């Protein structure tokens, strides 16, 4: 397949009249100054598509259900209690239908791949399914239907808190000891031969509050090289609890006690000292930022300017999926910094375009976090591509060097016209090719959940 773009972002450069050839899901050739008539498909402006590095797909179905203030002060912890009640009703069929909608919406917003931080493993009450990986395979089915690139991240969740309290209530659907968790990971990998070549399995110790130092060490010793994701330092209570139990704040403890490197992604990291921020940046790991969810849950603000000044890698994810919008994640990230600092153009080390820093940084960091050969348009890379309509009113007045600023700060996601996940042309004319059926199945699943009360 050959694609002609009037303009394409190659590395950091805007290039005109680019013909791109895709073979076996990868960019096979690039030619500048090409004749548009020689291509199979013509688009306006072509960009590397981002990876969404952190998703809990099932939470998408809760959007709008948790925005009422109850007696007393609302917090992350009261939201979490409501989430546990919700997931008690989910069947495997619900999980698959919700995930398919989520992945379709991600692709229509410009994401070519996703890291699914998957921690719902068992039946209500904690009993296992006949296949230990039943719910993971439902995620695989949703990814197969939508064509999205998938890095599946089964979660180790063993304790109800940092003091190793037993799991209870909704947490029972998450629970595994180390041995059963490793069997689960093996089962997930065994299910991959029928999937696309760009589907992979990593691991995700949930957090320092839901595992133990000994269990974390055991899992890392047994797991092969690959992506390792962990929730870290999301809430002030979490920071205080970990410090009281382990003697250090979460980020400091992890970096001092675990061989964190470029295979790691630390999700949220919203409460860090400058010293922790610098150490994380220098570790080579990716900071996995979820600005919409972090704002929705009142998590806090990432120490972004210090982190970028130290050369830290970052990417973005939609986490709770309360709102799936690539452009809004990026602008919320920058706006959080502006509100904190009462300044403008914060997330640019030195001088330059904020939009360029955000988009290029998130493209490269997301690909690294997902263990995915993508993040830029280059020969040999996966053809994770997104085409946008530069004639849209939010972009039509902008020159090349302003385009990513317009995309990040002014444009809606509807500027996306086409998207390819590893060469699979899943969004065409702004709509996912399987949109109607996916939405119908989602509505049916929601009607079923509501009927259960």
Structure notes:
This protein is of the alpha/beta class and 453 residues long. The chain has a single domain (51-372), classed as TIM Barrel, CATH 3.20.20. It is 36% helix and 21% strand. The relative contact order is 0.16. The mean pLDDT is 94.
- CATH third-level topology: TIM Barrel
CATH architecture assignment: Alpha-Beta Barrel
CA-to-CA gap between the ends?
49 Å
Summarize the biggest pleated sheet.
8 strands, mixed
Strand content: 15-25%
Total discrete domains: 1
In the CATH hierarchy, what is the class? Alpha Beta
Helix content: 25-40%
Helix-and-strand structural type: alpha/beta
The CATH homologous superfamily name equals Metal-dependent hydrolases
Count of helices?
A: 14
Looking at the structure, what is the overall shape? Answer: globular
- What's the overall average pLDDT, rounded? 94
Number of E-state strands = 17
SSE order and pairing:
Layout: E1 2-10, E2 13-23, E3 26-31, E4 41-48, E5 50-55, H1 76-87, H2 92-109, E6 111-118, H3 134-146, E7 149-156, H4 178-190, E8 200-201, E9 204-205, H5 213-222, E10 228-232, H6 236-246, H7 250-257, E11 264-268, H8 274-283, E12 286-289, H9 291-296, H10 304-309, E13 313-316, H11 326-341, H12 354-369, E14 385-388, H13 403-409, E15 416-421, E16 424-428, E17 431-432, H14 435-451
Parallel strand pairs: 1-4, 5-6, 6-7, 7-8, 7-9, 10-11, 11-12, 12-13
Antiparallel strand pairs: 1-2, 2-3, 4-14, 14-15, 15-16, 16-17
């Amino acid at each position: 397949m050959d694609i002609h773009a009037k303009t394409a972002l190659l590395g950091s450069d805007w290039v005109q009249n680019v013909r791109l050839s895709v073979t076996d899901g990868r960019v096979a050739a690039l030619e500048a100054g090409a004749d548009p008539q020689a291509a199979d498909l013509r688009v306006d402006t072509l960009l590397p598509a981002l990876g969404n590095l952190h998703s809990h797909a099932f939470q998408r179905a809760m959007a709008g259900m948790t925005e009422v203030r109850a007696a007393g002060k609302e917090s992350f912890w009261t939201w979490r209690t409501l989430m546990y009640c919700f997931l008690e009703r989910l069947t495997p069929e619900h999980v698959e239908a919700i995930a398919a909608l989520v992945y379709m919406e991600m692709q229509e917003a410009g994401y070519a791949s996703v890291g699914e931080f998957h921690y719902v493993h068992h039946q209500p009450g904690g009993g296992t399914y006949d296949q230990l990986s039943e719910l993971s395979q439902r995620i695989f089915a949703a990814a197969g239907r939508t064509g999205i690139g998938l890095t599946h991240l089964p979660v180790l969740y063993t304790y109800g808190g940092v003091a190793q309290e037993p799991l209870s209530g909704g947490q029972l659907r998450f629970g595994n000891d180390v041995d059963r968790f490793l069997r689960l990971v093996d089962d997930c990998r065994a299910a991959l031969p029928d999937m696309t070549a760009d589907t992979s399995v990593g691991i995700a110790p949930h957090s320092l509050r839901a595992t133990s130092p000994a269990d974390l060490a055991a899992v890392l010793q047994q797991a092969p090289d690959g992506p390792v994701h962990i929730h870290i330092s999301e809430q002030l209570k979490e920071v205080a609890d970990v410090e009281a139990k382990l003697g250090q704040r979460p980020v400091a403890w992890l970096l001092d006690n675990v061989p964190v490197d470029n295979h790691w992604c630390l999700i949220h990291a919203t409460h860090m000292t400058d010293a922790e921020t610098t150490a994380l940046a220098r570790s080579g790991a990716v900071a996995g930022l979820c600005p919409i969810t972090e704002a929705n849950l009142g998590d806090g603000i990432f120490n972004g300017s210090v982190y970028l000044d130290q050369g830290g890698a970052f990417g973005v994810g939609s986490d709770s999926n309360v709102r799936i919008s690539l452009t809004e994640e990026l602008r919320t990230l920058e706006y959080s910094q502006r509100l904190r600092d009462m300044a403008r153009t914060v997330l640019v080390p030195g001088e330059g375009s904020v939009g360029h820093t955000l988009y290029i940084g998130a493209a490269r960091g997301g690909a690294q976090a997902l263990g995915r050969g993508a993040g830029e348009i280059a020969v040999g890379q996966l053809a994770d591509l997104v085409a946008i309509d530069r004639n849209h009113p939010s972009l039509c007045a902008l020159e090349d060097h302003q385009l990513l600023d317009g995309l990040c700060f002014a444009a809606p996601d509807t500027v996306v016209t086409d998207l390819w996940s590893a060469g699979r042309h899943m969004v065409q004319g702004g709509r996912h090719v399987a949109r109607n059926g996916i939405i119908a199945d989602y509505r049916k699943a929601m009607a079923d959940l509501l009927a259960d009360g």
